[in-house]
Design a protein that fits this description.
The protein contains 19 helices and 14 strands. By secondary structure, it is of the alpha/beta class. The chain has four domains: about 10-135, Response regulator (Rossmann fold); about 155-325, P-loop containing nucleotide triphosphate hydrolases (Rossmann fold, 3-Layer(aba) Sandwich); about 325-415, Helicase, Ruva Protein, domain 3 (Orthogonal Bundle); about 425-469. Strands 2-1-3-4-5 form a five-stranded parallel β-sheet, sandwiched between helices. Strands 7-10-13-6-14 form a five-stranded parallel β-sheet. Strands 8-9 form a two-stranded antiparallel sheet. The longest helix has 30 residues, at about 115-145.
């Protein structure tokens, strides 16, 4: 397995002292995990190298023969304004630092600064460069309105425009090293999105999924970080954790909103430091996996209530994908119905049946609180009892009624007042006419479905419609 390159763009180290270059490289590669490094000790080679190679960040010494650091900083700012520059000087001079920052330097550091401070500045510069590149990529994709890797989303059945925009966003951020937060109601397909991210990231390692809901502190630590032999009673042998198993791949943490505060601290440390300690070990390991997390909960509300750490919240939502519920993408219902029918037919060893043309219309009147998972269950239940040529709608109607909502349920499942926005009340006869018109529109002029929506019999609706003529 080849070693992962981080970041995707090159980091150029410029200093006329080779020993310092070697020392800095070891610091960045070891604790920092930054491997895409190039060293230059002759300042005259910098500008030609920037023209030939994709460099996103330059760490630049100030005092060098031939071309000084300030001269190079000015040239880089003019010819390559998209490249970030961090000054690493041997002198702590405020006037020089201010001048460099005004010339466009991202940061000014002194070589004698602590290793952690240098690493933090370099990580921030890399993160800023990644964000700028992702923003450019997103603008390009949205302007072109196309998917470059549609095969990555083959497992997600949709023709919805909002979902297409989500796919374009995922394509733009999939290769980022930052976490991706996937939110949405239960059953919308958050794990399918995580799999698409994994495919698009071109990761060499596997996708490892962990449901962290309800995990206690020690179990969470052992599950993610593993343990050494003898770390606790029953630890008869060393076991690698999920972070290590997902190396060079993607670690998918589902139900992150249910994580305890103590476990949140450990996850935050893992994301901040990029390293972890297996139970019973005092030797750190480097995290080499991409992190994708998902939840059906409102993390912002939990953060405001003190149930979710603010620092972890902002760290996780570096990239945020929200999957809309099925009731907001009802144009996908016919596609999903056909897709699930094929799955169910194969599972039960039956032929794919035809179904009444009214069935997609019936399903479009339902709010689907369980989203895609609920629709799939309905289809499989209908197929389990199917024995004729035409698929019966009876099991679908029964499932809807068992939810206690009926097919006329509002999307949010709450009582709504349609007259709040109207200054005048309609007459009773006008209100009845409006209800009938809307029911016929929603049912695609199917009287049987319209009568169900209105809560009256089909003959009663038929009589009212005949009175119009």
């Amino acid at each position: 397995m080849k070693e992962a390159i981080y970041p995707e763009f090159g980091v150029l180290l410029v200093d006329d002292e080779p020993p310092w270059l070697r020392s800095l490289s070891m610091t960045l590669e070891g604790p920092g995990g930054i491997t895409n490094l190039t060293q230059i000790s002759d300042s005259r080679e910098v500008m030609p190298r920037l023209s030939r190679k994709d460099i996103g960040l330059v760490l630049l010494d100030l005092t060098m023969p031939h071309l000084s650091g300030e001269e190079l900083l000015s040239m880089i700012a003019e010819e390559h304004p998209g490249i970030s520059v961090v000054i690493l000087s041997g002198m702590n001079q405020i006037e020089t630092a201010v001048r460099c920052m005004r010339m466009g330097a991202f940061d000014y550091l002194v070589k004698t600064d602590e290793e952690d401070r240098i690493l933090d500045a370099v990580r921030r510069a890399i993160r800023m460069q990644e964000l700028e590149r992702e923003n450019k990529e997103m603008r390009r994709r949205f302007l072109n309105d196309r998917l470059e890797c549609p095969e990555a989303f083959a497992g997600i059945v949709t023709e919805n425009k909002a979902m297409r925009s989500i796919f374009q966003y995922i394509e733009a951020v999939a290769k980022s090293t930052q976490p991706i937060l996937v939110t949405g109601e239960s059953g919308v397909g958050k794990e399918l999105v995580a799999r698409a991210v994994h495919r698009l990231s071109r990761a060499d390692g596997p996708l490892v999924a962990v449901n962290v809901a309800g995990l206690e502190d020690n179990v969470f630590t052992d599950t993610l970080f593993g343990h050494r032999k003898g770390a606790f009673t029953g630890a008869d042998e060393t076991r690698s954790g999920m972070v290590e198993q997902a190396a060079e791949g993607t670690l998918f943490l589902d139900e992150i909103g249910d994580l305890s505060l103590s476990c949140q601290v450990k996850l935050l440390r893992l994301l901040q430091e990029g390293e972890y300690y297996p139970l019973g070990s005092d030797i750190s390991k480097q995290m080499k996996a991409r992190i994708v997390v998902a939840t059906h909960q409102d993390l912002a509300a939990k953060r405001n209530a003190g149930a979710f750490r603010k620092d972890l919240f902002y760290r996780l939502r570096a990239h945020h994908v929200h999957i809309p519920p099925l009731r907001e993408r009802k144009d996908d219902i016919p596609l999903l119905l056909d897709y699930f029918l094929e799955q169910a037919a194969e599972a039960f060893g039956k032929k794919v049946p035809t179904y009444p043309k009214e069935l997609p219309v019936l399903l479009s009147t339902y709010s689907f609180p369980g989203n895609l998972r609920e629709l799939r269950s309905m289809v499989f239940d209908a197929m389990s009892i199917h024995s004729s040529c035409m698929l019966s709608m009876s099991s679908f109607l029964t499932a809807m009624e068992l939810q206690g909502e009926g097919i006329a349920a509002s999307p949010a499942g709450k009582e709504q007042n349609m007259f709040l926005s109207s200054p005048d009340l309609p007459t009773l006869s006008d209100a009845v006419e409006q209800l009938i018109n809307e029911a016929m529109r929603r049912s695609d002029n199917n009287q049987s479905l319209a009568s169900r929506l209105l809560g009256i019999s089909q003959p009663a609706l038929c009589k009212r419609l005949q009175r119009r003529n």
